[in-house]
Amino acid sequence: MPEVFAPIEAGSIPPSPLDSSPRRLSWGKLVQRLADFSTNDSSIVSGSNTGSRSDLSDSGSDVSSDLCPSDDDLFFDPMEELILKEVVDLIARSLREAKDSDCALRCTKLLIPEKLLEHIGQELLHLAASEPCGLRGALIDLCVEQATTCESIAQLSVDPYLVPTFQLTLVLRLESGGLWPKIQGLFSSKSPSTPVLRQALKLSTGFRVIKKKLYSSEGLLIEEC
C-alpha cells in the first residue's frame, strides 16, 4: 500500500534544534527583568529606611536635635542671674531703709510692688547684655520722682572692686492714681508725736531708666518702662 503523506503547511514546521536565536532572546529579556527587579527592590528598601528616619525625626527621638543646645541655653549665664538677684535685693533693701531718712520716701510704711522689682531686673539684664563686664560693671543711681522734683536715694556699685563701665539712673515714681491716694491715710501712724508727712507710700510699677556708657562718648539712652 502506498504511504499517504498529509500535506504539511509551511507555517507549522517546528523550529530546528540548531536554531537557538529565539532562546537567546528570551534569556536576554529574563536577565533584563531580573536587573529591573533588583533596582526596584533596592529603591523600596532605601525608601523604607528613609521613612524610618523621618518617623524618628517626627516623633522627637532624633538624637542630633536632642544634643544640640537651644539659643536660650547658649545665652543663659547662671552667674549673671545670681548677680541680678543680689542687685534687685539690694535695691529693695535700699528703698526700705530710705523710708526712715529725710527724703521723698520718708514714711511709716513703704509698699514696693513685686512687679516693679521684676521689671527692674529684666531691664538691668537687657541694658547690661552689651557691656564688656556685664552687670558687674554697673553703677546704679536710685532716684524717686515726686511732682516736679527728682530726689536721689542711694548709689549702688554692683562690684566695688571693678571700675564701672556704665551708669544706670533708675527714676522711680510714687503711686498717684487709682484708689491708693484715697486710702493711704489708713496706713498713717496714729501717734500724735508723729509728723504728718510720715504716712504710708506706695511705689508705682512704672519707672524711667537712663543709661550712660563711661568708656565712650555715646549719648544717653533713656527708656520708659
UniProtKB/TrEMBL annotation:
This protein's UniProt keywords: Apoptosis, Cytoplasm, Mitochondrion
Sequence ranges of Low complexity compositional bias: 52-65
GO MF annotation, one: 14-3-3 protein binding
UniProt main location, coarse: cytoplasm
GO biological process assignments: apoptotic process; negative regulation of TOR signaling; response to hypoxia
InterPro entries: RTP801-like, RTP801-like_C_sf
Keyword Cytoplasm: yes
A single cellular component GO annotation: mitochondrion
Localization per Swiss-Prot or TrEMBL: Cytoplasm; Mitochondrion
Annotated segments matching region Disordered: 1-23, 43-65
Family matches, as PANTHER family: DNA DAMAGE-INDUCIBLE TRANSCRIPT 4 PROTEIN, DNA-DAMAGE-INDUCIBLE TRANSCRIPT 4 PROTEIN DDIT4
Family to which the UniProt record says this protein belongs: Belongs to the DDIT4 family.
Name assigned to this protein: DNA damage-inducible transcript 4 protein
Organism: Crenichthys baileyi
